[in-house]
Amino acid sequence: MKLTDKRFWIFEGFTIVYAIAMLMLVIALSGKSFSVDFLLIFVGGSCISGAITWLLGNSKHWFAFGLIHEGVMLFMIVTSLWISAIIYNQFDSIAIAIILYTMTAFVAISIIPTLALAYFGHGLFQKCKEKTDAFSLGDIGINGIAYSRNRALKIAEIYYHSNRAILGGDVYKMENGRITLTLDSWYCDKISSESPSEYVRRCYIVTTDYISKYPNNANFLFGFVVDAQD
To answer: What's the whole-model pTM score?
Structure first.
């Protein structure tokens, strides 16, 4: 997560809207109002929960994304109630009952809005992830794109199902925000006895095998040389 990532700030903006909507829903259901301090604390806590969810949501399903947000919010609320009870020396069976009631009520009211927020936020996260998994090679004078390890494997599969042979590729390295060309590469020459479909399949196997066995470092990127389409 970077502070310059506008998708994160869009998600945080919707998190604030979510927090305000939750408070309005609670007020409408209970008929009670809250102090300004409480409102600010709740909205701030929701923003913190959103940031933690964004950080921990990597490769998670949107439902898990929502459960993380719900869990963090619930933990913060229970912790604040627990600390308040201890500070005011009121930690007794009544305080425990209040905490349990608050937990149950919060989950019952917030779970559906939280999952809706998670579905939206997870979509933003995936778009952000896809964007940062592909890098233009224009800065080093190459007309092409280099991909992270996982994205490269997915791209190779797309080429395979599109019946396009991957003739080979090069390995690049991201250092201090700049891409450099390593001396590592792979290739797959056509054997005269194999059919076009067999060649496409062998190219795919050679490519995925090479990428999978290459040192798993997030700084390494992979670029493809593919057979031109007719």
So the answer is: 0.47
Q: Could you tell me the residue range of the domain that residue 138 belongs to?
A: 134-226
Selection from 179, 173, 183 nearest residue 220 by Cα: 173
| DSSP symbol at 138 | G
Q: How far apart are CA 165 and CA 29, in angstroms?
A: 61
pLDDT for 25 equals: 79
* Cβ density class 82-106: b for 16+ within 10 Å, e for less: eeebeeeeebeeebeeebeeeeeeb
Q: Comparing C-alpha atoms, which of 49, 50, 58, 69 is closest to residue 8?
A: 50
Assign residue 197 the CATH number of its domain: 3.30.190.30
The answer on 40 and 113 residing in a single domain is: yes
Distance of alpha carbon 187 from alpha carbon 210, whole angstroms: 10
Helix axes 62-87, 36-56, angle to 10 degrees: 140
